[in-house]
Amino acid sequence: RQIFLNGTFVAEHEARVPVMDRGLLLGDAIYEVTAMLDGRMIDNDLHLARLQRSLSEVEIAMPMPLDQIAKMQVELVRRNAMRDGTIYMQVSRGVEERNFLPSAGLKPGFLAFTQPKKLDENPAQEHGVQVALYPDPRWDRRDIKTVMLLGQVRVKQQARLDGFDDVWMFEDGCVTEGASSSAFIVTQDGTIVTRPNSTAILPGCTRQSVMALATAHGMRVEEREIALEEISGVAEAFLTSASSLVQPVVRVGQDRIGDGVPGPVTRRLQHLYLDAAR
Ligand code: PDD
């Protein structure tokens, strides 16, 4: 595999990150994930815009101008001959002697790699997933896409122990989002509901794209909080992310959703999203 690292492409076994990298030692780094289907990047402009925003929120310098990052992605994909999968990018604040307080003006570290996978062809897309419902363990700036992911790693490990495929998290009696996805329900009258963007969740690119598609096709979309008590009565549930696309959810915690199979609104959104991507 060819890795992009600080301006050059190198073979994976030759790629080296310094031990004193702040991303490695302190989680002081930002990342993005873009999906590829059939040789096309999906929602990449949204991912690049969010990368820029996350970096600026934590005052890490842009490693290169956005248009050059986009060109790098194209070259990375070409070198790895990837048609389906994900492109991962990570920007660390930089390298210096370990210290919580960073020096000003560090040179950011920038890496990117590809992970080939047929995202639209797997059992979860077809049959849906069962998500556990756990308290949200994260900090108060979840709108920033940082590599500080230990909270999400822990809840996903717990979910596997408890016999679930994935996790939705909650706070103050309401769903925040998935451990690595945006959470949606569909009410009995067919309204698609998801939590409004705030510092409590990551503003999902797939979420934004799917909501726009739904609205454009005359479906009702409502941004409001999802109370835990209402989950047992919903018609459908699904989650969205770059790597999961639109993924049906057939169980949330102890509640089976609908008939326990993906519902018609979810199926329609899956098709609309894949059609728009191609
Ligand atoms: N995760 N919320 C969280 C906490 C996420 O980690 C993600 C994505 C999303 C969905 O965002 P988007 O639609 O822009 O991918 C929501 C990526 C896929 C990851 O960490 O691998």
From TrEMBL:
GO molecular function: branched-chain-amino-acid transaminase activity
Pathway linked to the protein: Amino-acid biosynthesis; L-isoleucine biosynthesis; L-isoleucine from 2-oxobutanoate: step 4/4; Amino-acid biosynthesis; L-valine biosynthesis; L-valine from pyruvate: step 4/4; Amino-acid biosynthesis; L-leucine biosynthesis; L-leucine from 3-methyl-2-oxobutanoate: step 4/4
Gene3D superfamilies, per the entry: 3.30.470.10, D-amino Acid Aminotransferase, subunit A, domain 2
EC code: 2.6.1.42
InterPro entries: Aminotrans_IV, Aminotransferase-like, BCAT-like_C, BCAT-like_N, Class-IV_PLP-Dep_Aminotrnsfr
Keyword tags: Amino-acid biosynthesis, Branched-chain amino acid biosynthesis, Pyridoxal phosphate
Enzyme class name: transferase
Catalysed reaction, written as an equation: L-leucine + 2-oxoglutarate = 4-methyl-2-oxopentanoate + L-glutamate; L-valine + 2-oxoglutarate = 3-methyl-2-oxobutanoate + L-glutamate; L-isoleucine + 2-oxoglutarate = (S)-3-methyl-2-oxopentanoate + L-glutamate
Protein's GO biological process: amino acid biosynthetic process; branched-chain amino acid biosynthetic process
NCBIfam families tied to this protein: PRK06680.1 (NF005209)
Function: Acts on leucine, isoleucine and valine.
Protein name: Probable branched-chain-amino-acid aminotransferase
